[in-house]
Write a structure and sequence with these properties.
By secondary structure, the protein is mainly beta. It contains four helices and 14 strands. It has one domain: Electron Transport, Fmn-binding Protein, Chain A (Pnp Oxidase, Chain A, Roll), CATH 2.30.110.10. The longest helix has 9 residues.
Length: 201
């Protein structure tokens, strides 16, 4: 089949995010100007540059108490910092608990029983036992076409790696099994890896 998104897809459910899969999940932690902490997962997330290391995530919906965006973007606008926590399969249920549209006064760390730690280079909380956390300083927020579509870019200023995920000097994803987002309400998990050598190596 072929369809033009502007004319609709004619299917029971939108297939777009089932096509672009699997997607890593950025579990974004922030602290508001009022000192309240927030934690929420975003599957429009990725690394975008090596030097300096940079990441992005996109927020595509709103909350009534956040004037056209969500808690994460609103907090980052106020403080210019955020942390990206990597989600392991074992944390799937608590991650899902933090995805609710909770009020801005709700601390999702406490709500889901997640142990919190402080970042080193920024004033922001992080998931204490995450396989990895990237501490980030905001570089820019871009408003994309459409209602409430914002992309947040940050420069990584600190990296936490859980010791048991390091094997022979490499960060081994099979030690924690990254959770990935598919389409609809579906997820997957990385349990096997293989290598390919580039033809010019």
């Amino acid at each position: 089949m072929f369809y033009e998104p502007k004319n609709g897809h004619g299917l029971p459910h939108n297939p777009f995010n089932a096509v672009v899969t699997p997607r890593p999940i950025g579990w974004i932690s922030t602290r508001g100007a009022d000192g309240r902490d927030n934690l929420a997962p975003y599957s429009f997330f990725n690394a975008v540059a090596y030097v300096p290391p940079q990441v992005m995530f996109a927020s595509t919906s709103t909350k009534p108490d956040r004037e056209g965006t969500k808690d994460s973007v609103a907090n980052i606008r106020d403080t210019d910092v955020f942390a990206v926590n990597i989600v392991e399969y074992a944390a799937r249920d608590v991650m899902n608990q933090t995805s609710g549209a909770w009020g801005r006064e709700k601390d999702e760390f406490a709500l889901a029983g997640i142990t919190k730690a402080e970042c080193e280079t920024i004033n922001c909380p992080r998931v204490a036992d995450a396989p990895a956390t990237l501490e980030c300083k905001l570089t820019q927020i871009l408003q994309l076409p459409g209602e409430a579509n914002f992309t947040v870019f940050g420069e990584v200023t600190g990296v936490h790696l859980r010791d048991n995920c390091l094997v022979d000097g490499k960060f081994d994803v099979t030690r924690f099994e990254p959770l990935t987002r598919l389409g609809y309400r579906d997820y997957s998990v990385v349990r096997e890896v293989f290598s390919l050598q580039r033809p010019d190596d």
